Amino acid sequence: MQLHINDEALPVYEALASSVRIKIIQLLSKNKMNVKELAAALGLSSPITTMHISKLEKANIIKTEKVGQQRISSLRVDKIEINFPEKIFNAFDTKESTIPIGHYTKFSVEPTCGLATAQNFIGKVDEPKYFMDSDRMNAQILWFTKGFVEYQTPNFLTESETLEMMEISLEISSEFPFANDNWPSDISFYLNGLEVGTWTSPGDFADIRGKFTPDWYPDNQNQYGLLKTIRIMHHGTYMDGEPMSEFTIDDLNKTNADLWTLKIEVKDDAENIGGCTLFGRQFGNYDQDIKIKSYYS
């Protein structure tokens, strides 16, 4: 689950602001339990325990299902990530471009794989040939287990402008048949043929529906990803503020190219071959395509 610092996330923050509810989460991390079992473990009455359970359900942290004559509670999530407002860099002018998910210019993928528009799947899933279907230009989600997709976008800087920093923002996750939120995958990023770095995605998520995922899309398939921002600077490359590699903006400037070529790959020799899912507009939790922002002087 990904949260932002906004009013929509308040039910989650409120649900976590209780030692009793924290204890319930700890208990359910070990076993599914009914209200009577939870009440006994907490030393509380069943009505009080039910009130705490209701708070956690409202926040989508746990779910309760009827099994026979009992109502059994279990965890819906095993990780919560909080995104703080993005720091704005005002020192430089910026130019920004977006790349729709289906506008890749080159690919080589292996099943499980597939792609879909906001209305339906494109061709048959797990058949790479449909990645060349003409309708792929309208794709808003794609996934593959191994291989790569490559995109190109214009470098709008003029000869008198100097690139000082670049940001790449995208919603991304691993790929598992249906979904698995504990499925690490080493996903590598390249710019103009140079390796920028590798990020290990923790999983492929379907614990709750994606905020923008269309109603027709199956509940048990990858619903949303994590919004990740790669920032390339003069002293290295960072992902969400954490060091990613020693690749610098000076390395990129040496390519002196009219196009930015972005490749996203799960390598054959990766330690964790757990696939890649890319989410665009009308899918996932962020209504955006791949964004590339150039900061220049």
From TrEMBL:
Signal peptide: none
GO molecular function: DNA binding; DNA-binding transcription factor activity
Alphabetically ordered keywords of this record: DNA-binding, Transcription, Transcription regulation
Domain (HTH arsR-type) ranges: 1-95
One Pfam family from the record: HTH_5
Record-linked InterPro entries: ArsR-like_HTH, HTH_ArsR_DNA-bd_dom, HTH_MetalResp_TranReg, UCP030050_HTH, WH-like_DNA-bd_sf, WH_DNA-bd_sf
Domain of life per record: Bacteria
Entry keyword annotation includes Ligase: no
Protein name, as recorded: ArsR family transcriptional regulator
Native species: Enterococcus aquimarinus
